[in-house]
């Protein structure tokens, strides 16, 4: 099916905004359909399926241009997001239109440090200081440059800075998932439940099996004695299972959630 006016308007919004949360997507979908008097599922139960089909139609049409509206879940709050991603260029060079070569080098190093950290986050001071370790490409970045760059990366939703800690935001996880899994295959993990890249989450003390917080909630729901989902392991799951209603940021579990990596 080709795109109607509603699809086109929806896509245009994505092109200018990049990343939208599920609520914004539902609102946008409603606005686009109503504007052109096109079919809109009022009932909540029909809406989900209709929206899914709506996005699929767009994806089928933009696939030849190597683009896709991809859905993902934020690792911290478990909220759903939609992001327009480029599928032909999975590497970090897709940032080249917005960032210079030395800036991309800095971001690459930042990604590596975050992935290699225990909790999927690093201190902003150590992030800024890492410019000293960068090889000189064209022009060397100063610490002030690094500070400004962190702010820009945050404004463009690539990273999240909270209480002086830097972590990867949902946009980076969605757009750079392939890149991260390929380039850092020896230090990355996939979630045992959803099989997608997992940077922040809980891991098994015995076999390193990893779960996103929101996947752990779902997986261990109504299970009295939580056990490692890896069938060959099955040891007790030694983490407090976050409670969906109360743990928005889940700070208490984060600290111990990521065991030191034993792999070398
Ligand atoms: Zn997961
Ligand atoms: Zn295990």
TrEMBL record:
It catalyses: S-ubiquitinyl-[E2 ubiquitin-conjugating enzyme]-L-cysteine + [acceptor protein]-L-lysine = [E2 ubiquitin-conjugating enzyme]-L-cysteine + N(6)-ubiquitinyl-[acceptor protein]-L-lysine. Its main location: nucleus. One of its GO terms (biological process) is double-strand break repair via homologous recombination. One of its GO terms (molecular function) is ubiquitin protein ligase activity. Residues 244-264 are annotated as: Disordered. The keyword DNA repair applies. The keyword tRNA processing does not apply. It is found in: Chromosome, Telomere; Nucleus. It is an enzyme of class 2 (transferase). One of its GO terms (cellular component) is Smc5-Smc6 complex. Keywords: Acyltransferase, Chromosome, DNA damage, DNA recombination, DNA repair, Metal-binding, Nucleus, Telomere, Transferase, Ubl conjugation pathway, Zinc, Zinc-finger. Residues 191-230 form the Non-structural maintenance of chromosomes element 1 RING C4HC3-type domain. Belongs to the NSE1 family. PANTHER family: NON-SMC ELEMENT 1-RELATED (PTHR20973), NON-STRUCTURAL MAINTENANCE OF CHROMOSOMES ELEMENT 1 HOMOLOG (PTHR20973:SF0). Component of the Smc5-Smc6 complex. This is Non-structural maintenance of chromosomes element 1 homolog. It comes from Mytilus coruscus.
């Amino acid at each position: 099916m080709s795109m109607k006016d509603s699809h086109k308007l929806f896509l245009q919004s994505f092109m200018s905004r990049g990343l939208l949360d599920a609520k914004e997507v539902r609102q946008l979908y409603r606005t686009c359909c109503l504007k052109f008097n096109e079919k809109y599922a009022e009932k909540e139960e029909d809406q989900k399926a209709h929206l899914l089909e709506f996005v699929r139609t767009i994806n089928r049409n933009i696939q030849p241009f190597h683009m896709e509206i991809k859905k993902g879940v934020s690792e911290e709050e478990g909220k759903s997001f939609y992001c327009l991603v480029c599928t032909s260029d999975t590497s970090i060079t897709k940032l080249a239109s917005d960032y210079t070569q030395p800036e991309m080098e800095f971001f690459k190093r930042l990604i590596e440090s975050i992935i290699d950290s225990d909790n999927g986050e690093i201190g902003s001071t150590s992030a800024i200081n890492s410019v000293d370790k960068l090889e000189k490409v064209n022009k060397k970045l100063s610490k002030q440059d690094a500070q400004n760059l962190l702010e820009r990366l945050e404004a463009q939703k690539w990273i999240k800075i909270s209480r002086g800690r830097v972590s990867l935001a949902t946009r980076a996880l969605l757009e750079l998932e392939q890149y991260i899994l390929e380039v850092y295959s020896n230090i990355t993990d996939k979630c045992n439940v959803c099989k997608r890249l997992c940077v922040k989450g809980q891991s098994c003390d015995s076999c390193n099996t990893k779960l996103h917080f929101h996947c752990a909630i779902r997986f261990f729901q109504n299970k009295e004695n939580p056990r490692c989902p890896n069938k060959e392991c099955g040891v007790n799951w030694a983490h407090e299972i976050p409670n969906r209603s109360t743990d928005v940021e889940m700070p208490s579990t984060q600290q111990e959630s990521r065991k030191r990596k034993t792999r070398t």
